[in-house]
Write a structure and sequence with these properties.
Layout: H1 8-14, H2 19-29, E1 44-45, E2 53-63, H3 72-87, E3 93-99, E4 108-110, H4 112-120, E5 123-128, E6 131-132, E7 143-146, E8 148-149, E9 157-161, E10 165-167, E11 170-172, E12 177-181, E13 184-188, H5 196-214, H6 221-232
Parallel strand pairs: 2-3, 3-5, 4-6, 5-7, 6-8
Antiparallel strand pairs: 1-7, 2-9, 2-12, 10-11, 12-13
Helix pairs in contact: 2-5, 5-6
Length: 235
């Protein structure tokens, strides 16, 4: 799912705000998504200092607890096809991998090698309920939001790619726009991308009225009530 009306500049614009701000803006632009489309459990973050990542989802499913029963050549070919899928336009991309094992993260897909490969293919990072490893050796600037950190890749293999996945409550389809940072991740509807800057501006102006009085030395409940009323009148 791509939209030629959404440009790389539009996606880069969204990177100036953290993911909670994007979620707030979506409550204005797409109120029907107030309680959906974002991760709802804590995810480990490889590098909390990195800017948010914003890109088109490349989805996949993964297992590692037991070895694949398929022919090894077929498993290898699927891995290669997955990499071709990640490299395909439009970009930049974000890899969204659902670990299907009963104990997600038994074996890590992400580490030194896969972060280097994905970064080289134009992928900004990943969101997964699975695990990751090689923390000091992962590709610089590549972000990971994962379920846990672990030492082994065990019997890791890609099961499928391009289909809908669910990462701790966030349903993602191929081509969805993903915004993610140290707080978690959210799907940004295509029709919201160009509306978000104005929505953020509105929310910032509304919050500023309340924050100004809340941070003042003479703050009290009456001033709060007035500020909340004044804030609601800003459009």
């Amino acid at each position: 799912m791509s939209d030629t009306a959404v440009t790389p500049k539009d996606l880069e614009t969204l990177r100036q705000w953290d993911t909670p701000t994007i979620c707030n803006a979506l409550e204005v632009t797409n109120p029907e998504r107030r309680a959906m489309g974002f991760t709802i459990e804590h995810l480990q973050v490889l590098d909390p200092s990195l800017k948010p990542i914003v890109g088109y989802a490349r989805t996949a499913m993964y297992r590692s607890f037991t070895a694949s029963a398929e022919d090894p050549a077929k498993v290898k070919a699927r891995r290669a096809a997955y990499y071709e899928y990640v490299a395909a336009d439009p970009g930049p991309t974000v890899s969204i991998i659902q670990d299907l094992d009963p104990n997600p993260g038994f074996g890590a897909f992400w580490g030194e090698v896969n972060t280097a490969i994905h970064k080289g293919l134009g992928c900004l990072g990943c969101v997964t309920n699975g695990s990751f490893r090689d923390l000091p050796d992962c590709a610089p600037g590549f972000q990971i939001l994962g379920g846990k950190v672990g030492p082994s890749h065990a019997n890791g293999h890609i099961v499928d790619f391009g289909s809908e996945v669910n990462i701790v409550g966030m349903a993602v389809n191929h081509g969805d726009i993903i915004h993610a940072d140290c707080h978690g991740a959210v799907v940004v509807p295509l029709d919201a991308v160009k509306k978000i800057p104005a929505a953020v501006d509105l929310l910032v102006r509304r919050e500023a009225v309340i924050l100004e009085v809340a941070r003042a030395d003479d703050f009290n409940i009456d001033k709060l009530k007035k500020a909340m009323a004044d804030s609601a009148e800003i459009h």
